[in-house]
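pls ignore typos typing on phone
nicotinamide-adenine-dinucleotide + seq
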Amino acid sequence: MSVQYSTKNLPKQLFINNEYVDAKSSKKLSLYNPKDGSLLSDDVPLAGEQDVDAAVDGAEKAFPAWKKMSATQRRGILSKFADLIEQNAESIAQLSRISLGAPSAFGAFEIGLCAEAFRYNAGFIDKFGGESWPQEDGFLKIVRNEPLGVTAGIVPWNGPIGTIGLKAGPALATGNCFILKPSEKTPYSSLALGTLIKEAGFPPGVFQILTGDGSTGALLASHMRVRKVSFTGSISTGKKIQEMAAKSNLKRVTLELGGKSPAVVFDDCNLDNAVEWTANAITANTGQVCFAASRVYVQEGIYDKFIEKYKEAMKAKAKEIGDPDEKSTNIGPLVDEAQFKRVQGFIERGQQGQGTLAVGGKRVGTTGFYLEPTVFTDVDPKSEIHCEEIFGPVSVVKSFKTEKEIMELSNNTNFGLMAGVFTQDINKALRVASDFESGMVGINCVSLMFMSTPFGGSKESGLGRECGIHALRAFTEPKTIMINMNY
Ligand code: NAD
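k done
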């Protein structure tokens, strides 16, 4: 079987207990295509309280049997789901693309990431067995990794498919039931997964999909029977979620939030490599990437050469902008008018004394939300463009003299998601890598991730980690069982 929906037949129902059902709430979401601003549909359901309760009821009912299912059986279901995602890659990518605007290469990356997340976590099911401790003191101690129950994943629009895998993969592998709440800006591809969920063999209630906006997310975050929320999105929403979790049932929370990631380029680096990574980092997905290297610091000895090459690279990127439905396009529009105006606002204000516009800054075309890759130089370190997450194809570049000075500036922020260092001196690279206050650091690379290693931020960029064994830990709780051996 394949995905039953397409761009000509968009999904308009919630997916609860393995069935597409009409929402009880009468509220709807309207969606527009960012490549031309045209209306896609105005009747995507906005799940309300009764819908959320129905999804939680179903998930709660499904939980006891799901957590007891044998590892082989559960692994089979998750692996089949990964296969089905790949087999339906093009349909899913199209349903994502029409409201996100990201070109097919990004869609392919996301689908691959999602399928890999399900496979990776499926492989872990019988290898996450808990611990036991010696009985010489008269007590045998066994630690079980127990699932939490009904869990929820609230995901953003900028990686609508990949983030599903990063959350649902470990949640379901460890025996939890999972309710997915996609972003109101990118609901179609998520909703379309219902057919595949059923075909893969997930029992009814195990994997639910509720579309809606922040109000639906808030219902999940404050629900008394949801035991965990894994959230990816902005810092302000992340803080609200943690508050709702605390005020309701102290549900567990994982937060993957924003960033303003530095790349520090030293005189002794391979210049072309540094230019390539930093230019790719800020233009992938039109700069709408949480861990994009958006602050580029270049040591003064190579500053002029770097700027010349970086500007060239960004101008070349501008030529890759186009209709996301064309295979040759590498950079699409920003996600919608609101995001476009937000980024444009940063660019306009940036030119009023915050820095020098070195490249880009203009809208591309007259329809759709396209923007040139944009670089500011000579930025004031206290300015808005230097300090705030812009979440578009806009970077700031600044020169520096010493390692000490630039590490202070790099860390002088409440963000702490990703950082990069470019140098051929391994001692310096490792010293700087350990000095960065961030969850992830690239040496001679930046803005990348792996399924096997912890993904997430320090400081206000997040709480907890996804990927690797950390993701499984985040969806389970250790239970200690103590056996009196002298009884
Ligand atoms: P957002 O916070 O506006 O929305 C994210 C999700 O939260 C959406 O599904 C939205 O409906 C929901 N939401 C909104 N208000 C809510 C509320 N009060 N209660 C519960 N849910 C609510 O973020 P966005 O604009 O979709 O995404 C962009 C942000 O996400 C950027 O800051 C980016 O850096 C961050 N992000 C982080 C990562 C990461 O892994 N660290 C990955 C991707 C994006």
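The chain has a mean pLDDT of 97. Residues 104-124 form the longest helix (21 residues). more later
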